Amino acid sequence: MNLRYWTLFSAIAFAALLCACGGGSPSQAGGGSGGSGGNGGGSTGIPQFAHVFILVEENHSYSDVIGNSNMPYLNSLGSAYGLATQYFADAHPSLPNYFTLTAGAGTAITGTQGDNYPGPVTQDNLVRALTSAGKSWRFYGEALPQIGYTGPDTGLYVHRHNPFSYLSDVLNSPVQAANLVPFTQLSSDLSSGTLPAYAFIVPDLSNDAHDCPSGMPTCTDTQKLANADQWLKNNIDPLIKSSAFQNSLLIITFDEGDASDPANGGGHVATLIISPKAKAGYQSTTLYQHESTLRLTMKALGVPDLPGGAATAPDMTEFFQ
Q: How many Cβ atoms sit within 10 Å of the Cβ of residue 104?
């Protein structure tokens, strides 16, 4: 009788010991990405950020940009932070890619109209997701003629590089439209501590590597890229060096590759993941597209709605764990 009770007692004690020890393993697996606070790390491995910025350059493939000695600043960021070496745009021409970055769908919206698609876009989208989650946002457009402008091309500003100006959520709401602001407001928002949770930054045609630098009617591709790189250093480096950036994420990508590059729909493009919370000097070989960037921007802000293809796109967790 005593032996039987002792055996039962031993079994219960052993089971209790196993339960007590088992709770430590999952948290240990989270490792390096656990310092973000809030609900960062956890099951997604993506930290939570106060601010997420995305900046879109134009029409150049990965091989044009990475390793190009005429773009020393962008390449220095790629070396210091995260670089997605197998990232592909979704389509040619531009507009479907901008829609993929904001609505998780591109050619499904534009069809064969491409850049000529007039809108509106009524699908679930980033503005709807952010607003529902109580998150602020702004589009900072260089050469945008005025706050709230949703009209056609004017000067160096082009409608097709502002996906927010197609969204029914913006077109039908003066409050939301007021979040379309000239790029010059970024520096004032930074200095006054009024940066939004989400920011979409677009240089104008002369500074995004699409066209020649201002004042040059003709130029080489080298001059386009060198000018775009200098613009980044002049305008984005102050943001990266600011105290606000300590809890921020910046993604720099290209809307599409060269017209001659049809790989995976829109060509092989450079995409950088820049943050103090990201792995330093990390190079990913995973295939990603713009849907994954949309997914990352939403998850990094704790937004549960993942519009369109972002709901099933591969997570970019590896840049943070």
A: 27
> What DSSP string describes 85-131?
TTEE---SSHHHHHHHHHHS-SHHHHGGGGGG----B-S--HHHHHH
The low-confidence residues of the chain, meaning pLDDT below 50, are: 1-43
> Is it true that the peptide bond before 93 is cis, omega within 30 degrees of 0?
yes
Which 3 state secondary structure label does DSSP give 168? Answer: helix
State the pLDDT at residue 321. 72
Q: What is the pTM of this model?
A: 0.87
Pairing of strands 198-202, 180-182: unpaired
Average pLDDT, the chain: 89
Please give the pLDDT value at position 44: 54
CB contact at 8 A, 277 and 48: no
Question: Can you say whether residue 111 is alpha, beta or left, with left for phi > 0 and alpha for psi between -120 and 50 degrees?
Answer: left
Domain annotation for the chain: domains and CATH numbers: 39-196+204-319 (3.40.720.10)
Q: What is the pLDDT of residues 97-135, one digit of tens each?
A: 999 999 999 999 999 999 999 999 999 999 999 999 999
Alpha-carbon span 229 to 180, nearest angstrom: 24
**Cα–Cα distance for residue pair 159/115, rounded to 1 Å:** 9
Is the bond preceding residue 145 a cis peptide, omega within 30 degrees? no
| pLDDT per position as a tens digit, 264-297 | 999 999 999 999 999 999 999 999 999 999 999 9
Q: For residues 244 and 93, give the distance between their C-alpha atoms in angstroms, rounded to a whole number.
A: 35
Cβ–Cβ under 8 Å, residues 201 and 186: yes
* Angle, CA of 262, 236 and 79, to the nearest 5°: 60
Sheet holding 271-274, edge to edge: 180-182, 137-141, 198-202, 51-57, 248-254, 271-274, 82-84, 282-284
d(CA 95, CA 80): 30
